[in-house]
Design goal:
By secondary structure, the chain is of the alpha/beta class. The protein contains 9 helices and 8 strands. The longest helix has 23 residues. Bound molecules: NADP nicotinamide-adenine-dinucleotide phosphate. The site of NADP nicotinamide-adenine-dinucleotide phosphate (NAP) has 29 residues, from helix 1 and strand 2.
Length: about 290
Amino acid sequence: MTGITPGPMAGRTVLVTGGTGGIGRATATGLAAMGARVGITGRDTTRTRAAAAEIAAASGNPAVDPFPADMSSQAEVRRLAREVLAAYPRLDVLVNNVGGFWATRRLTADGLERTFAVNHLAPFLLTGLLTGRLTASAPARIVTVSSGAHTGGKIDFGDLQGECRYSGQRAYSQSKLANILFTYELARRLDGTGVTATAAHPGVVRTGFAAEDPSPVWKLFLPLIRLFLKTPQKGAATSIYLASSPRVEGVTGTYFAGRKPKASSPASRDTAAAARLWQVSLDLTGGTAGA
Ligand SMILES: NC(=O)c1ccc[n+]([C@@H]2O[C@H](COP(=O)([O-])OP(=O)(O)OC[C@H]3O[C@@H](n4cnc5c(N)ncnc54)[C@H](OP(=O)(O)O)[C@@H]3O)[C@@H](O)[C@H]2O)c1
């Protein structure tokens, strides 16, 4: 174990999913610079190890650990959780950052639609598997990166995985709405444990977002608007704030944008839909223990 780097997060341990690039990497770098021990995930072992070393160098904090795992696979999420629990005797913050947009409908190794699986079911499962450690480390925080795109989302319980009708935008907006419904339900379930759950909109940020499988509209407009997008550092500001600031100690069940609480869509505040989504997610992940 390396020595403790001084800073306001010294002595705290944080896991940031999707820390090899984009907003997650900037979040991990910011929190490491504040003295936290930071674990990052990424799909590829070499890329994840390289990113951890680069984040350590950029932040001046050697305590950055790579956890390679493809979170589209539930077996990989379970392995990731086991490795994190073995490596970290305490876990103060979980930042559920992994997420993406895919124009084409594809199934994961578990036979689930990819957007729903990666953006919603993976953080749902990982959070459930790590809740015991977070609770034992309380006060602790769970930050889930959603998006302003949730406002256009609808949870289609009759076609959650886009079997009848799929579009990248529809699947993405639904998954980002699911992130907020999950956060609010989690906050209710964790009430009194000292573990908070918040959701963040990072802004529109210049990252690798949608690059793997962009929609024709995205392909057309991205080169034009790229220069006007936020830097990943600016996009990480709300996640870093929610993970670290004493100002949000104890704040739970709240959606933030630009480091300020913001009203999320009426659909995101539907408690019956949140409870139903929780149950469906439990069924689809094999009944995770935890919150
Ligand atoms: N960019 C925006 O404008 C914007 C706006 C609103 C919300 N968001 C949200 O912000 C979050 C981060 O997005 P970003 O823009 O930073 O995206 P990004 O640049 O594409 O980064 C995604 C990160 O997730 C990792 N990742 C992707 N699929 C994975 C998987 N199956 N398993 C494990 N890791 C995986 C990637 O690592 P590897 O490629 O190395 O595996 C990378 O580190 C997402 O939840 C997104 O919905 C972004």
